[in-house]
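Protein modeling request. Please complete all fields; requests missing the sequence field cannot be processed.
Requester role: graduate student
Desired output: 3D structure, token encoding
Chains: 1
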Amino acid sequence: MSTQVLSEVEAKKPDGYPFHIGTRPVLHRDAAGTVVGHHYEPLTEWDYLHPQEEDRFMSADLHSTTLHYLRQSLKIGLRHRTELTTFTELRIDWQRSDMEPHGPDGIVFEGMRPGFDRAEGTLPVEDFEAKVVSVFEVTSASTRHIDFGDKFDEFIVLGIPYFVVVDAAAPNGQPAILAFKLMKSGYRLMVDSPKLGVRIPPLDLWLRWESDRLILADRFGQDIPDELELVDAFDEQKARAEAEKARAESEKTRAETEKARAETEKARADALVREVAELKARLGDK
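Delivered output (286 residues):
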């Protein structure tokens, strides 16, 4: 096993179900080369380690929601770092004869040359002069042993500076963030802060697992909200704006009412003055 800090990194395979890792479509063609049908083949551990673009991986809801938040929060947290480019679930072709492509859950590059079409399923690293800063993986029960096994070792060979594992499928049932920094001797587990979690220096972001989910925080320790929190904040802002509008309308109505009352009082006073004047005039005539 690649690191001393892990335990029970074994594959979890559902009995009698060959597609626990995922599926790959296989096309059927006739003599003319026209597609006439297809079937699906189960993915192997090698396929998980070195995927093809058409591969589809099975994942639990916790894995999916964690990856979704990771994608969103990286983009938010690094939005002002124009020298960095973030991808999730993209096939990475290292363009090396000694290494097959990988499909990390998340990856951050520095100084990447512009022009890559995000509709493409594979990024050729050398063609775009993309320098890896950090790779992220979210574990699943059936493939966790690969993330901490062959993938761990191959990332060392590739010289990836920071390898961050969101261990959502920890065998003890307690997900955690395990971040590794590449040293001369290999990856070294980074020490985390009890309050903020672990900091990835080149990204200036903090990661921790809290309240049953992944949380990223910016350089100041301010948590990056998930979609529901953003929606709640939007709803609160909208409610405040509507309350302020209602208050302003109420103030306007009150002011208009007060103005009308004052005008009525003035009209009454003016009428009274006229009545007094008329009365004096009649008394003077007598």
